[in-house]
Amino acid sequence: MTDTFKIQSRGALSEGDRYLAFLAIVLLGYALMGRGFAYLGLPPLYVGEIALLIGIIVFLRSGALIASLATLTGIVLVALMVWVLARTIPFLGVYGLDALRDSTVVTYGVFAFIVIGLLLEDARRIDTVLRYYNMLVVSFPAIFVGFCLTLFWVEYIPRLVGPAAIVDITTSAVGTHLAGTMVFVLIGYRRVSSLWLLVWFATLTLVAATNRGATLAVLGPVVFSMLLLGRWRLLLAAILGIVSVFAVLLAVEGSFTHDNVAERSAPRVVSAHQILKNAESILGDSGEQNVEGTKRWRLEWWDIIIDDTIYGPNFWTGRGFGLNLADADGHAGPPMGPPTRSPHNVSMTLLARAGVPGLVLWSLLLISWGSMMLRAMLVARARGHQEWADLFLFIGCYATSILINAFVDVTLEGPMQGIWFWCLFGFGIGSAMVYRAQAASGLGISPR
Question: Which helix (DSSP H) or strand (DSSP E) does residue 329 occupy?
């Protein structure tokens, strides 16, 4: 494996290793602290932008620039980034840094090329990445504690820099890491204790009571991975256990308390009845104003964007990056939610800002990347390289979890999940390129 991408300069190699460790710390900080970590730095250079600038330098010095463009997915990503920049630069004079911040929904894709370059420089870094991810699995209980603080006591958490508390973790981000850590464990990369599993399910309960999209982002990838790994009995046992415990909680709650579902004028509460209403809303119309309000709010805004682009005057160009779409369209925020600049769907964001060409390129990017991951996994399974197949399953499920959130929430528009997504995106491409080169050269070692 290492002979295929051999680098002569030992200094360059160690530089890449140091940056990979730094990037792992940044990603861990986003997972454990959320927005509180994102505001570290000297505005406008926050920790994410600092990691990006250093990564670009490391990438250019790695000599992997041309090799990183050797896939259709990489070429499509470059085309999308160029188009986004073309719809950003003309608005810098009008909107300033807001235009650059809005464009990061795609321009953070540079992280994908940075990670590709690191893997092509030294394929052994695939193993290193998995070892670093073990740190997140081990520290998952800290995410549970931080999430509880954010949900129930955020007003008491001190602020270090910026407007966010030191710990401010969004529900969608927690859902993403619930999915990633569980798939990691199911594959067998790490064995965990019963206490860890208890914390994981407790966190899932909080997510299920507060965010429908994040719940889907957990259950979809986890169930898919269990089916693909042949863990049928474990899946059935988990379903029976969850349903039984939930039925008991629902009965007890109904006997001793009133229906504790959040009203229109109040935020959702953590209760069995609220989880039930959220599940009903996913499958259809729950009938609850608070639960259905955000769904209708999204659909109405998406209709406005479609009318303005696909059927309107901004078909080819969109309205550019920098404009506050919420103010322009009269949708300042969801019911009982904070103000937002984006329409809670990354595809709608790109359609509104980059027009139909932006949406088409984005769709091609996802299709090509998903096809690459699926093909690599199936080829590895057919050749008996199960550990490689498991690696592609882990990457694919993790990134898909983030995408599920991105289609119903503001996800890739921020660094907390945006940088995570693009790093996983690049990790998938780089790993597939390494595996393809390894298979072509007859090397059969595993990625672990």
Answer: helix 325-329
